[in-house]
Amino acid sequence: MTLHDSPSLPNRAEAPVDVRSWRRRELIEGGFPAPLADVVVADPRFDLHALLQLVDRGCSPELAVRILAPMPREVAP
To answer: Whole-model pTM?
Structure first.
């Protein structure tokens, strides 16, 4: 039996995942205020796990977001 044949795992086509909702829930459970979680969820360039690790080590959610903020996108001249 392979991983794909396992009856306990849902078929990927049958189990759509709302990634944004999941990310938001994880952030809020990790101590992020809802408005800040919404900002992070809106930008997929944020590393969710790195943010939560910083908070777990005592960093405030606001500071964690500042530390891990994605670099601004360059605009072509």
So the answer is: 0.70
